[in-house]
Amino acid sequence: MLVRTYILNKHLNNVELFLRGSNLYRGIRLTTAVVTPLVIMYILGYAEWAPSVVVGVFLNAPGDIPGSLKRKVNAILISIGLTMLVTCTILFFKPYLMLLLIAMAIISFVVSLISVYGFRASLVSFSGLLSMVLALAVQKESPQEIFNHIGLMGIGGLWYLFVSFTFQKLAPKKDNNQLLSDTLALIGEYLKLRARLLTKKNKRETLIKEALVLQTQINEKHETLREVLYVERKKSGRSHYDEKQLLIFISTINIFELIEAKHLDYNEIDRLFIDKREFLKASKNLNKVLGNHLIKLSDLLIQKRKIPNKNVLLDALAKANDAISDYVDDVTLPQAREGALVLKNLYDYQELLLEEVRAIRRVMANVREASKVSLKRQDASQFLTLQEYRLNVIIQNLSFSSNLFRHALRFTVAVMFAFVLGTVLEIHNTYWIVLTILVIMRPNYGLTKERSKDRIIGTLIGATVAISIVLLTQNVVVYATMAIVSLIFAFALIQENYKFAAALITINVIFVYSLINPDAFEVIQYRVTDTIIGAIIAIVANYLLWPSWEVNNLKDVLLDAVKKNTSYLLATKDLYHAKKQNQLAYKVARKDAFLAISNLNAAFQRLTQDPKSKQREFQLIYSLVTLNQTMVSATASIGSFIVNHKTTSASKEFDVMVFKIADTLEMSCAILEGKPTIKQSDAESIKEAEDVLLKTFQHLSHKRDKNIKRGNTEISTRDMHHLQEAYLIPNQLIWLKSLSENLKRATRKYIEAV
Fold this sequence. Notes:
Membrane topology: Multi-pass membrane protein
InterPro entries: Memb_transporter_dom, YccS_N
Keywords: Cell membrane, Membrane, Transmembrane, Transmembrane helix
Helix content: over 70%
CATH topology of the largest domain: Methane Monooxygenase Hydroxylase, Chain G, domain 1
Order of helices and strands: HHHHHHHHHHHHHHHHHHHHHHHHHHHH
CATH class of the largest domain: Mainly Alpha
Radius of gyration: 29 Å
Subcellular location: Cell membrane
Protein name: Putative membrane protein YccC
Number of domains: 4
Largest sheet: none
Number of helices: 28
CATH architecture of the largest domain: Up-down Bundle
Number of strands: 0
């Protein structure tokens, strides 16, 4: 009974989050923009103008995604101009088949290439291509009719821009709150996953692959939030609410770095706690408690309920602390020292996590003592990933080495084949086949296949629902209601669940057509058939025409990850030498390294979606991804310790080790670039530096053993930090050295094999 109640409450909570969230708000915004001109023009007696305005609304909505207002407005205005130009071209060339085919080929290729300017540009590109497809369905013959249609489309686009601006003013922080909520929820899930990694020895490989996906998703959210929060703050100053959102965002960054910093050497954990795993349970539980608490806080950003009690956090932290002394009592010193230091380092990191969670709690509770953001505008700009919009970006992509160039060619051939096939065979509504190709075809095979499957299943579900409703009722009011409701939820779900969005879009199309044409079954039949044909063409084209198998695209992403790894390591070295002066440079290098690893993770995920026969050297590539990921985490571990503790001065031996690791990483870069590798480090001096660093820990341990023998079992915070520093930093450096050498060997094998 309790389980059922829990499940029911969870479902109700998810429904409430959806109803209050920005996705449904976006669906209502677009539906308002579509329905309002239809109603007004019908009332005023200009119903024949309404479809053109509605087309303008639909075509220019895709570019309206979360981000800075300036970029959003620019994207919609460019989209309006592009869709008007494309529609005009297609309508004038439509009577002349050869000219129409040439125009379609040029538009398909050129407009597809706009995607090289980033995600927002890819949505503008989608609008342009969608306008080409819809123009094929429009029946306008005389120049006056065409120009009237184009003008009304432009009005529709401007109307949507006005509606979007109005909705944003009515709820200016809804998108930002949704982004922050999603980020907190993802980080909460990531923390819980890391808890399982601690003890689930047999499931680690599966869990690590899940972690790669979560890391990519978190980094994507962080990038969007940087644009939204930093750009808007830079332009309009800071309000109290903006300050709150930025504080929460900064805490999510800090939490994410702390999690990354504790990518533990699990082989070492297994060795130390091989028969003492019970002492890891308190740390594991604390991670779960922290993760669940973040998920609850993420819900509260949408629901505005009371903040949960913090006692559960404090109790879990106290138990983790008690586990350290229990371990020492059970194993006894000095044998327990290494295990105790591992638990202590883990505890310190979790204590810092708890402080960041409490900082988020204070901000959400409007506590006046919550800290202020002192980031300077020029400093904030360094955290933004700027998109280059010069013409040479397209010129640089005009080669078969460019994935987007090959996609543009592939898409153009698929569209032309589908249109010619439909024309020759006189297929009803050929443009639906082309539309299916446009919607599901992506630069990589795996995503195209996945979207094809979702599209077909969604279309079949939508058709089944529509048939059921048509059989049960022949009521026009029901058709109109279903068309509006399905439209709202389709756009609300299109980013979250494409399969259900496709089902709802199918329902919407069928009932809109049913209002015009009473034979709904004919519409359903053609819709399903054309969708299947379009999906098959898209999959076959992705497989056969200049395919972009991820194994061939990985080298550049891998090279960028290794370079950013090197920069991050060197920035950490500078931080150790002068914390205050180099903290900003360290944070920027950290951000760049995390993004580079996120891109590498995303590339690996795309690789797993390719056909098995195309996943050459899969295990080797997986090793390269995990080695890079582990190196970032090991560097983050050193950096996090330096930032959060009062440390001793960096030694020359520390620098020697860092330069050795950097040299090895640079050799990996040279191998990837096909350049000769130059060995720079002296093996003898490296071994000497390693010995000196390890002796520091041995010396402090020996000193501590003497104190214990004298009966001085208590240890000061300062001495404990020195002991932790002497243990953590040399061990992490030795681990990094080993990882960098493994990475160099794996890189050489990868280049030889691929």
